[in-house]
Design brief:
The chain has 2 helices and 9 strands. The protein is of the alpha+beta class and about 160 residues long. The chain has a single domain, classed as Immunoglobulin-like. The chain is globular, with a radius of gyration of 22 Å.
């Protein structure tokens, strides 16, 4: 009896393997979303202040510092809901040596760009979190109170 079961297993194994391959091939591809956010010229503001994407999407966000006259760095940091103040404080505590960026591995940060000078841009790639509203801020000292917005993640 064991010999017969082993033979049946060998004969059916390719069917099982092909079945899994067919399931993988029929799964919908992960959606890719390109988002762009910029500074509002030399003002302490983002434009737009609201972005959206579906949960689980591969997001490619490009941040552009459009300032032309005032030499002031900016970044774009996406945080967990309710964590933007703590992230801004952590960036301030990290200080100038860390370019006022949140410490690496901060569990309250979902994604962030490096600091950009006027006319510069940076990109970041991340997987959109669970549905909800996620704040984004600039962590340069004193900017988070003015430079903030929301990423709406939908189902």
């Amino acid at each position: 009896m064991k010999r017969r079961e082993a033979l049946a297993g060998l004969l059916l194994a390719p069917v099982g393997f092909l079945g899994y391959r067919a399931l993988a091939a029929s799964a919908p591809p992960q959606r890719e979303v390109n988002l762009t956010v910029a500074t509002d010229g030399d003002l302490l503001a983002f434009t737009p202040v609201e972005l959206s994407c579906p949960t689980g999407a591969r997001v490619h966000l490009t941040f552009h510092h459009t300032g032309k006259y005032i030499r002031q760095d900016h970044d774009w940091v996406l945080t967990l809901p309710g964590a933007s103040d703590a992230v801004a404080q952590a960036a301030l505590a990290a200080g100038e040596a860390a370019r006022y960026l949140p410490p690496p591995g901060d569990q309250q940060v979902i994604a962030m760009t490096p600091m950009c000078g006027k006319g510069e841009q940076a990109s970041v790639d991340f997987i959109a979190p669970a549905p909800g509203d996620y704040p984004f801020i600039c962590t340069y000292p004193g900017h988070a109170g003015f430079m903030h917005g929301v990423l709406h993640v939908t189902r």
